[in-house]
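Quick one:
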Amino acid sequence: MRLFRLLLRKKQSKGHGIHSPFAFEIITNVLNSPYSYYAFTDIPDSFPYSQGESKKIKKFNHLSFRLVNHFKARNILEINPGNGFNTSYIKSPSSKINYKSISGKGTLVNAAEESTSGVGIVGVTLEETNKAEGSESDVIATKQKYDAIFININEDENSIPAIECLLDNSHENTFWVINPINTKYSKHFYQL
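Output:
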């Protein structure tokens, strides 16, 4: 029985047996897309500390790029951007992207100061990334509606704005990406 479920899941992961046109399109054109983009080679070359990144992180960065590109997201909010590596993937699909980040610990600014300022990342520089840094009160005050919200949950639960605030800044076509999804902090966040 377990083997049957495994085989069925493998077939469905490629799009077989999916009846929803939306889900089928996401699975075939985003999750399992065979195509590579220019950013997949340009961005890692721009960050000298990214050479030893794991395959799991690489897949997540590629997925972030593909989601933003597929849904044509223009207003993007990233919470806890970390070292700015995934930020580069998020911002690189289009030069028209309006990016805002909230960092609980200010790690993006520290990582950018350690790196060479102004390193070119497919139309994005670290200086631009620093200027996009904001606070939770900035997000609440603007009431801007975002097309995409990327939430990087770290060990500090308090660094994430209240879910009500994020819902107020979302519209009906907003997609959320919660990373990582299998930690106790992330489960607590999306079960509220």
